Amino acid sequence: MASNRDQRKAGDTRALLQGLIFGALAGGVVALWKAPRSGRALRAELRRGGQALVQNVEDTAAQARRQIAGESVEEVMAAAKAEARRLNRR
CB neighbours of 68 closer than 8 A, spacing ≥ 6? Predict the structure, then answer.
């Protein structure tokens, strides 16, 4: 049986993911509404943004799973920093 702390963590993670999804949708609507670009350029930008959003959501979900599985915040931060360094070298 999950402890109250585990349930709260799961609820926090769920709320974070819901917020990310809602924010992305709201941002997409605003981008379409205020778009000063051609349709082709806008679609390309939205595609790139969507791909980045999917990657961010996957990373956040993986981080949440690791935290729930018992990894410490320090271990997760170290892994995130290493990944950020790797991405900056590209």
Answer: 6, 9, 10, 13
Check: CB of residue 63 under 8 Å from CB of residue 81: no
At 70, give phi and psi (nearest 5°).
115, 0
Structure tokens of 6? 């585990």
Nearest alpha-carbon partner for 14 in 22, 2, 4: 22
Task: Encode pLDDT of 13-55 as tens digits.
Answer: 888 888 899 999 999 888 878 877 777 887 888 899 889 989 9
Whether pTM > 0.70 for this model: the answer is no
CA atoms in the 13 A half-sphere facing the CB of 39: 0
Helical axes 39-69 vs 73-88, angle rounded to 10°: 150
Phi, psi (5° rounding) for residue 38? -70, 165
List Cβ neighbours of 63 (8 Å cut-off, separation of 6 or more): 76, 80
